[in-house]
TrEMBL record:
GO terms for biological process: mRNA pseudouridine synthesis; tRNA pseudouridine synthesis. It catalyses: uridine(55) in tRNA = pseudouridine(55) in tRNA. Residues 23-171 form the Pseudouridine synthase II N-terminal domain. Responsible for synthesis of pseudouridine from uracil-55 in the psi GC loop of transfer RNAs. It holds the Pfam family TruB_N. The active site is at 38 (nucleophile). Belongs to the pseudouridine synthase TruB family. Type 1 subfamily. The keyword tRNA processing applies. GO terms for molecular function: RNA binding; tRNA pseudouridine(55) synthase activity. The gene is truB. This is tRNA pseudouridine synthase B. It is an enzyme of class 5 (isomerase). Keywords: Isomerase, tRNA processing. Its EC number is 5.4.99.25.
Length: 282
């Protein structure tokens, strides 16, 4: 089985838990995921199976959309309500203030990732350091908030939201940053990932219901990619992992090499001007 599965991850499982369960259920040796979803969160998780595990990086640059709930008044070490309460401050704002603060976060801004994240500092993941009680200096990163809107009214210091964001955005940090603008504290109490790029939760299967026929095959995944046909001599070199250059093509985007019988041989990505690296040999 080589391809991708769209899974609706339930609340309470880690992304690794899901990989383990699908591996056991479908009897597949090689499975990976394309981006961690926190245990307290649910929603879309894309898994790579077999040869497709080499393509996980292709999903890292995709935009994402979420819905969830933010609760005000308390600061948690994890930036969500599963953590330890570190501080408290009574919220003193109204719904109009909230909408204005949400609007002010739309666009690009420098976001500080939470300590409880998988980002590495000096070779160690931040959450591993956080579990030791450490709070280390970390760099902000530019993120973009395309949409950030209320889905339910502010009630008992909490509200439901919808947001669509660029790669690398932490929704837990977005909640904390929103609270700062309102001179209080906040945390996520729920989160549901709705989409990754053009892949949507409505098309995902549960762990219990997923089956081999739900696999997005490599043929389907690459059907819209440009195809470059090469002769038998070059095909032998391609199968051995040769890099390509302007002697074969001058295309400026990723492509599929096919043989004279229209069979997919390899997937190539652009690594420089007229320089192409094989990312996957079929």
């Amino acid at each position: 089985m080589d391809g991708f599965l769209l899974i609706n991850k339930p609340k309470g499982l880690t992304s690794h838990d899901v990989v383990f369960k699908i591996k056991k259920k479908l009897h597949v040796d090689k499975i990976g995921h394309t981006g961690t979803l926190d245990p307290f969160a649910c929603g879309l998780l894309i898994l790579c199976l077999g040869k497709a595990t080499k393509l996980a990086y292709m999903f890292s640059d995709l935009d994402k959309a979420y819905e969830g709930t933010i609760v005000f008044g308390k600061h948690y070490d994890t930036y969500d309500t599963t953590g330890q309460i570190m501080d408290e401050k009574e919220p003193l704002f109204n719904e109009e203030d909230l909408k204005n603060a949400m609007d002010s976060l739309k666009g690009r801004y420098q976001q500080l990732p939470p300590m409880y994240s998988a980002i590495k500092v000096d070779g160690q993941k931040l959450y591993q350091l956080a579990r030791k009680g450490l709070d280390v200096e970390r760099d902000t990163r530019e993120v973009q908030i395309y949409e950030f809107d209320m889905k339910s009214k502010l009630s008992t210091n909490q509200f439901g939201f919808y947001t669509s964001v660029s790669k690398g955005t932490y929704i837990r940090s977005l909640a904390v940053d929103l609270a700062k603008k309102l001179n209080t504290f906040a945390a996520l109490s729920s989160l549901n990932r709705l989409s990754i790029g053009n892949y949507h939760l409505k098309d995902a299967k549960t762990i219990e219901n997923v089956a081999p026929e739900h696999l997005i095959s490599l043929n389907d995944y690459f059907k819209t990619y440009p195809k470059i046909a090469l002769n038998d001599y070059m095909i032998k070199l391609v199968k051995n992992g040769v890099y390509l250059d302007e002697r074969q093509t001058t295309i400026n985007k990723p492509f599929i090499v096919i043989d004279e019988h229209n069979q997919m041989i390899a997937f190539y990505d652009v690594i420089g001007l007229n320089k192409y690296k094989p990312m996957l040999i079929f």
